[in-house]
């Protein structure tokens, strides 16, 4: 598990211990849960089809004598929708049935796959139409990805989420090891259209598995958030969440340099003296095998070195591998470098993903994962375009070597941006608020700001403790939805302090209460324990006159004579 980045991070260090899980947590333990196991197997076949198709697609665009930039544009087309749309689809995944959101996105992906297949059989599949089709499929993927990743916690108990994330990465990389070989063999034996058709059938199996997945839906106490409202809430949370910001920064920087591996690998295979579709498939297979081998040791290495140590070392090793790929074309060096690159890749991405999964509360989890995906795929998209351009001017080898140097510099610059190590999963469980339920009859709950003031009586000997507790209290309020927050001292009444925060509307205030986790409650309890007096702190809730006027059907007009 993971812990705050620093003493002033987002979660208290003294969170209560979690009860021991009924099943011992291990890398394979999530497979004991039927829902996860069935979806995992179906996803394996879907990934096999996807990677087989990727070989056919990349080889078509390479053999058409396209420019290096055009080849790299495949990666751009696949990544751009994930960058542009993930936060929007993350709002949907946090507010609606994630299973239904996944099914809608998967049907869009399947429709794109069928379209590519029809074009291929008709002989109309060319670089431009291929890139456009990949872009359309990526739109469906942007719908699926946030819901898919956040739904892991609905398939296994929270204690097994980290292992489930790692197994999903293993799934992807097993397919990456085997799928390209299948694609290369089918491409040589039957042609690209049949490879695309195979992918459609494989993906249909995953849609069936998600369709038959039945589970209890989480109870929602409030109506769903709107798209704009949900995006603002996610950005506000990220602004005041140290962990989320660090993961986004480091993942973007990693993707920007490491994207050269995927963007230029087809060209590396094609330019080799033994270049063929089969060689490209073997290269992708080496990356997949390396990832599988790396997944077997990720948990042990992270336990020994910590999350930050694991990410730093593996990113540095990947930089060395990129440099080696750029400096030599000897296959006895290329394939070991690709094996090690696959291990490093899964070590970095699985650690980032698990960090977000474990340190973000459920109400914003899909959006936080979407922002993480936006960062990593933003780096991949920008990097793919950049390295494709550089390959056209300095050659594939020069671009790969430059990417290795750039990644090494990035590792050194971000060394002090530490990832968390441990936190108890129970601290992020939602808790019922102790504040009284209040009816909102008589005013508009969607408009008009709410000003909340909490009055504390703090003796002098506890003043330093209050000042120390103010920072985590401020982060708590701002992460959960407050627009502004301040702590004031009353100059006329000795020992009186007021916590004052402003919320956009009454509905947002209700959402703030609904978002409280056990960790949040511990912060509030720590502050309230400093309060002296026979009665609890006095809470004052004030609603703007704008809510009153709109509720009564009046429009506010300014009298010109009053100006």
UniProtKB/TrEMBL annotation:
Protein name per Swiss-Prot or TrEMBL: MFS transporter
Record InterPro entries: MFS_dom, MFS_trans_sf, TM_effector
Membrane topology: Multi-pass membrane protein
Location within or outside the cell: Cell membrane
Record-annotated Major facilitator superfamily (MFS) profile domain positions: 35-420
Membrane spanning residue stretches: 38-62, 69-89, 101-121, 128-148, 192-211, 246-265, 277-298, 305-325, 331-350, 370-390, 396-415
Entries under Gene3D superfamilies matching the protein: MFS general substrate transporter like domains (1.20.1250.20)
Presence of keyword Transport: yes
Keyword hit for Transmembrane: yes
Family annotation (Pfam families): MFS_3
Domain of life: Bacteria
Lineage: Bacteria, Pseudomonadati, Pseudomonadota, Betaproteobacteria, Burkholderiales
Native source species: Achromobacter seleniivolatilans
Keywords: Cell membrane, Membrane, Transmembrane, Transmembrane helix, Transport
């Amino acid at each position: 598990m993971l812990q705050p980045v620093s003493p002033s991070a987002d979660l208290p260090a003294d969170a209560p211990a979690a009860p021991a899980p009924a099943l011992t947590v291990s890398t394979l333990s999530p497979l004991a849960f039927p829902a996860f196991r069935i979806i995992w197997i179906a996803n394996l076949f879907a990934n096999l089809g996807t990677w087989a198709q990727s070989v056919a697609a990349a080889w078509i665009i390479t053999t058409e004598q396209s420019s290096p930039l055009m080849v790299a544009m495949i990666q751009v087309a696949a990544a751009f929708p994930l960058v542009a749309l993930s936060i929007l689809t993350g709002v949907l995944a946090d507010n609606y049935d994630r299973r239904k959101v996944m099914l809608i996105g998967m049907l869009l992906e399947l429709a794109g796959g069928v379209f590519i297949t029809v074009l291929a059989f008709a002989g109309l599949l060319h670089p431009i139409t291929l890139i456009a089709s990949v872009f359309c499929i990526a739109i469906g993927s942007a719908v699926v990805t946030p819901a898919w990743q956040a739904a892991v916690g609905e398939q296994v108990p929270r204690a097994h989420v980290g292992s489930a994330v790692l197994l999903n990465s293993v799934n992807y990389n097993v397919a990456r090891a085997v799928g390209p070989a299948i694609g290369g063999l089918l491409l040589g034996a039957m042609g690209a259209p049949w490879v695309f058709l195979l992918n459609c059938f494989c993906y249909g199996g995953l849609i069936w598995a998600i369709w038959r997945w039945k589970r209890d839906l989480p109870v929602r106490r409030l109506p769903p958030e709107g798209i704009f409202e949900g995006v603002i809430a996610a950005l506000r949370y990220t602004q005041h969440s140290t962990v989320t910001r660090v993961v986004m920064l480091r993942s973007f920087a990693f993707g920007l340099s490491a994207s050269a591996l995927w963007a230029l690998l087809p060209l590396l295979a094609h330019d080799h003296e033994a270049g063929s579709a089969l060689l490209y498939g073997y290269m992708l297979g080496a990356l997949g095998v390396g990832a599988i081998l790396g997944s077997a040791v990720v948990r042990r290495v992270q336990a020994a070195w910590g999350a930050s140590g694991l990410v730093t070392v593996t990113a540095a090793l990947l930089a060395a591998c990129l440099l080696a790929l750029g400096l030599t074309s000897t296959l006895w060096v290329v394939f070991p470098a690709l094996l090690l690159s696959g291990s490093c890749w899964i070590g970095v991405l699985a650690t980032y993903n698990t960090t977000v999964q474990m340190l973000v509360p459920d109400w914003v989890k899909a959006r936080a994962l979407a922002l993480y995906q936006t960062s990593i795929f933003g780096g991949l998209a920008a990097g793919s375009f950049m390295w494709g351009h550089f390959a056209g001017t300095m050659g594939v080898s020069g671009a790969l070597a430059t990417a290795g140097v750039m990644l090494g510099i990035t590792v050194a610059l971000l060394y002090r941006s530490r990832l968390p190590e441990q936190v108890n999963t129970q601290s992020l469980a939602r808790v019922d608020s102790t504040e009284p339920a209040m009816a909102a009859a008589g005013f508009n709950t969607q408009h008009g700001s709410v000003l909340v003031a909490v009055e504390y009586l703090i003796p002098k000997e506890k003043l330093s403790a209050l000042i120390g507790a103010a920072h985590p209290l401020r982060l708590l309020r701002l992460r959960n939805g407050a627009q502004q927050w301040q702590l004031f001292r009353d100059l006329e009444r000795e020992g009186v302090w007021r916590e004052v925060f402003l919320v956009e509307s009454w509905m947002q205030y209700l959402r703030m209460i609904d978002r409280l986790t056990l960790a949040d409650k511990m912060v509030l309890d720590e502050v309230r324990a400093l309060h002296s007096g026979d009665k609890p702190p006095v809470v004052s809730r004030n609603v703007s006159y704008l809510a009153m006027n709109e509720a009564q059907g009046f429009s506010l007009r300014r009298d010109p004579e009053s100006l």
